[in-house]
Design the sequence.
């Protein structure tokens, strides 16, 4: 059974940093693209960052230069380093797996974690 478990969320002041992790079980990271998504209260889910099996990455324009997605295939763990956080980055962050191409579209993924809350205060 595939399971994705996020961790690393929390509360931080604007300008601070957090590192999210997503540990996978029953799933081989190397075969598919992996992504990070977020959903703020009252807003649609949006793609934040994604990484392909070859390590190619893509980011939403709003996080470019501040967020970095990476993975450790040996540990089956996906990461999202978030720097220079802003209050508008407050959301539940989800990791996702299973896309067959590098995508920031939710429907392209078929495995989801339960999410981790990130709160950025001004």
Sequence:
């Amino acid at each position: 059974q595939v399971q994705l478990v996020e961790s690393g969320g929390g509360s931080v002041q604007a300008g601070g940093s957090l590192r999210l992790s997503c540990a996978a079980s029953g799933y081989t990271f190397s075969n598919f693209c992996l992504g990070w998504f977020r959903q703020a209260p009252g807003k649609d889910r949006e793609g934040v960052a994604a990484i392909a099996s070859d390590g190619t990455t893509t980011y939403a324009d709003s996080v470019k230069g501040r967020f970095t997605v990476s993975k450790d295939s040996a540990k089956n763990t996906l990461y999202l380093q978030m720097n220079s956080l802003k209050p508008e980055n407050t959301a539940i962050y989800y990791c996702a797996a299973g896309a067959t191409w590098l995508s920031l579209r939710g429907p392209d993924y078929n495995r989801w974690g339960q999410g981790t809350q990130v709160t950025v205060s001004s």
Summary: The mean pLDDT is 95. The two ends are 40 Å apart (CA to CA). The CA atoms of residues 43 and 75 lie 33 Å apart. The first strand starts at residue 3 and ends at 7.
